[in-house]
Amino acid sequence: MKVLYNDGHVDECPEDQELHVVRHSAAHIMAQAIKRLYPEADFAFGPATENGFYYDIDLPEGTKISEEDFPKIEAEMAKICKENLKFETYELPRAEAIAHMQERGEKYKVEHIGDLPEDARITFYKQGEYVDMCVGPHILYTKALKAFKLTGVSGAYWKGDKDNKMLTRINGVAFRSKDELAQWEHMREEAEKRDHRKIGQEMEIFMMNEAGPGFPFWLPNGMRIRNSLMQYWQEMQDKYGYDQVQTPIILSRSLWETSGHWDHYKENMYTTKIDDEDYAIKPMNCPGACLIYKSKPRSYRDLPLKLAEAGIDHRHELKGALHGLFRVREFQQDDAHLFIRPDQITEQVTDVAHLITAYYAQFGFPYRVELSTRPENSMGSDEDWERAEQGLKDALEAMHVDYKLNPGDGAFYGPKIDFHLQDCLGREWQCGTIQLDFQLPHNFQLEYTDKDGSKKQPIMIHRAGFGSFERFIGMLIEQYAGKFPTWLSPCQVKVLPVSEKTRDYALEVAQKLRDAGVRVKVDERDEKIGYKIREARSIDRVPYMLILGEKEAEAGNISVRDRSNETTQRDLGEFIADVTEEIRERR
Q1: Is 462 in the active site?
Q2: Which of the following is catalytic: 335, 384, 418, 523?
Q3: Is 90 exceeded by the pLDDT of residue 296?
């Protein structure tokens, strides 16, 4: 695919950038269509994104765009594509660029120019009557946009600042071909079927209530899943040599000032007053871990000190950003903090990476790894950063892990490794992270006595595997479409008596399963067996149904239907042995 760069030259587009260029060009074509339909519209930002594109638009008072308007906007976009308008580019000096945008009534572009560095090149792209300030590149002709669809409308503050005007954001997707768009539409339908909010309600896993927006209520079935996942988590902490701790949910303002959160994160923290002093509900667990470390003298022999905490945290998210279990205000973090000596970096990072990848292997998530290095606004010595970055590289290479380097994208307090999971719908989730931190040990004046008797500062590793239990459970609901593996299923076996005559036998079978530690329910309702089977399969999504008629009651055996919908006659004792082994081994 050939594209037009902002210096006027045309060249082949690298394959990994083609989709970005197509989507960016679609944003311009959408803006042109909206300008034709709503001549008074003003345009702010309109970039391509990882999943599509959007444009933020300031519409005249009383004018609204809803999803009902999408067909006419898409029709106008199709018309522009059919016109096969040529994309052209040009550059203007700053003063002329400002005048150019003022003349065209583009107040947001004028303000944007004011935010650019003095030496910035200011380039424009034009197709037909539409002009946009843009760095490009773009397709050569509008006809090259072959497949697009508008997907949503929402509000967005200018520059993302809630003190600025609320604009209308129109989202869309664009692809290189109609086949790619059709595949995306299929995946979107699949995503709607798997939506964890819908399945969570059907299976009674969790609920939300306006009494606490963003604060999930876990229902009995959800607690079964959480507790099973937590038990797995605790076993893995023991296996990898972690000590488990729990730190208070509310801590004083002075602690958050020491950690730096009060200055940098206060707007996202919930605060209260106790005895006329400021306190905050913790948004993260690391300062509490520092206090535990500091509670007694430490020697080089004590390191690594590995503290795991499934800590309950609270962060203020904007109400419009809340989304089921994926974006909440209260969450339980799969967290740990390791305090190590500099010579232990490679060894401990390798150990942490093995733990995190073991999690993902358990649930069948493929993943990719990124290594982010020192940013411009970092703290710490060159020597510290060099050693830390090399330690992370050595750990990844020792494990033969392919990784992408993200220069300058580390945290200000240290470099990091991020794990990006891919789910069955091809979406990526950044869950696991390994971060090296020099800042908090410095802020809290943490130290250990080295071999020679001198005082040294430990390095801190922040580690998460699931991220939060809330989001991870949301991901698992969608990954499995509610059909959890047996060890995670809220109900592992559902017993279905065919009629009232076999109810007593059903209760007897259920009790034997319960005694063996299997989660079981009996459907005692006076409903037809076909109805009970359909509900157990489509609503409860149970791994196993036991269908018990008079024949089974007389023979003292069971009919087992699994998720393949095949029914087999089984001995109850053998079935219990097989199921308990499957649960124990987490198959």
Answers
A1: yes
A2: 335
A3: yes
